[in-house]
Design a protein that fits this description.
Layout (H helix, E strand, L loop, with lengths): L2 H11 L5 E2 L18 H13 L2 H5 L12 E4 L2 E4 L16 H10 L14 H4 L4 H13 L22 H9 L13 H11 L5 H4 L22 E3 L2 E3 L15 H10 L10 H8 L6 H12 L17 H8 L5 H14 L17 H4 L4 H9 L5 E2 L2 E2 L13 H13 L10 H10 L2 H5 L4
Antiparallel strand pairs: 1-2, 2-3, 4-5, 6-7
The protein binds heme C (3 copies).
Amino acid sequence: MSARLAAAATAAAALAAATLALAPGTASAASNAGASADAATLQRGAYLAQAGDCAACHTVPHGKPFAGGLPMNTPLGRIYTTNITPDPDTGIGGYSEADFARALREGVAKDGHNLYPAMPYPSYAKVRDDDVAALYAYFMHGVEPVRQANRESDIKWPMNMRWPLKIWNVLFLKAGVYEDKPGKDAAWNRGAYLVQGLGHCGSCHTPRGIGFNEQASDESGSAFLTGALLDGWFASNLTGEHNTGLGRWSQADLAQFLKTGANQHASAFGAMTSVINNSTQALNDADIGAIAAYLKSLPAAGGNGAAAYAYDPKATKVSLARPANDAGARVYTAYCLHCHGADGRGFAPFFAPLAGNPNVLAKEPASLINVTLNGTGDLVIQGIPAAYPMPAYRGQLSDQQVADVLSFVRAGWNNGAGAVGAADVAKLRAMTEPVQQAQGTQ
Ligand code: HEC
Ligand code: HEC
Ligand code: HEC
């Protein structure tokens, strides 16, 4: 490959790092049950569409289901998701099942143009034929057709050329549906299939390589699901690491988190909220159990470095008793203590604990800064919005105060995580400026 080709491929590949510009709303299930597919197949297709979280990207908040138009940030500019309702002119009504399978698993649209890997086809490549068929039946006959033209990307020529994506696919797209791994039980294989395939968990949780490709697509790669930074959030380490990963979570803890967005260890926020709102809460107990079993089988990436976390409130108690001497303790006492407690244990699962929470212990503090500046408030379980969202402090706390309080929290209760700098807070504050965020919704 020539240097120019390589450069073009890398530029196009930058688009693989696309992330949602907005937290999408919950899609309501539309149905105009067509005569040509039986009810059971349509129901299975609708369920698989939830497992694949198609609505998170193809439905905009308050928009018609699957009509597209959601802006996604890429390093080269904004792109917009497309209309995947069965409207023949503006949607995918003209797609045959083979066209649909090719879009889903190979990232090629009906007219032959390559899709940006912001559409997670590198994961959907693993989806089996019978599941593709049920999804196709659902999108053709279970989804209301909506006439809504697709929106051009904001990427300017020549960066908007799509042919370099063909090179990217040659380099990084692994063809072939999921094959059951011998020696593993049915639940493990079902979990692996859902996590690696429709669930596309790795598209956020696996770190990206030089081509913005996911560094591993299954548990045979050491980087698989070890955590990654995306658009100002750190998608947690999902391996068995005992401090920053899921090592201290039971299978039941994990199932509770995926169903309800919170458990005794942590609660969901940022990009994970839309996954829980649109996808995992709808999965049946067998599938949630399978996902939990599979994730719990992943060994600690790189081994467990530090000793396992052990709760110790003594030193923190002293700081909180004399907050005058400690800037972080002062902010914590004034703004955080009444919900998260002097003991750092919160009132889980309602108020997240900060002591021992893997998100607090993680090396990368982006999520903590983001949550403190911008709060949470969009988790919706069974139609009911979270009763106690985390308030936003961007208007009340300076960059230095946020850095101080998070450094205090990260050191507190024996958490042992590094300090947070005011410059990092300033960066995230600018990046998540509400004015900037809102532009994409017009
Ligand atoms: C993380 C976001 C994301 C998710 C999740 C997602 N898509 Fe997409 N999809 C996109 C984007 C972005 C495009 C347009 C890409 C482009 O224009 O190059 C797209 C394009 C498509 C297309 C091509 C349509 C066309 O002709 O323009 C199809 C078909 C499609 N998606 C189906 C699905 C299905 C089915 C699911 C769920 C199983 C799904 N998508 C989930 C982001 C997503
Ligand atoms: C759109 C990006 C995205 C996708 C896709 C995604 N996640 Fe997440 N996930 C995140 C982010 C960001 C966090 C950190 C915030 C939090 O803890 O909720 C997270 C956190 C989690 C946590 C909590 C870990 C902890 O230590 O607190 C679990 C468990 C989890 N994800 C499981 C999954 C599974 C299973 C899938 C696939 C079915 C998945 N995620 C798909 C972004 C994503
Ligand atoms: C009104 C109660 C309340 C106050 C005050 C509050 N929080 Fe929270 N906080 C919450 C709730 C509830 C969550 C879980 C929210 C969710 O995930 O939807 C949370 C989550 C968090 C998280 C993410 C942990 C996780 O895994 O979910 C961090 C970090 C955090 N808060 C820090 C702070 C800091 C720092 C302050 C003070 C500046 C503060 N909170 C003040 C209620 C509060």
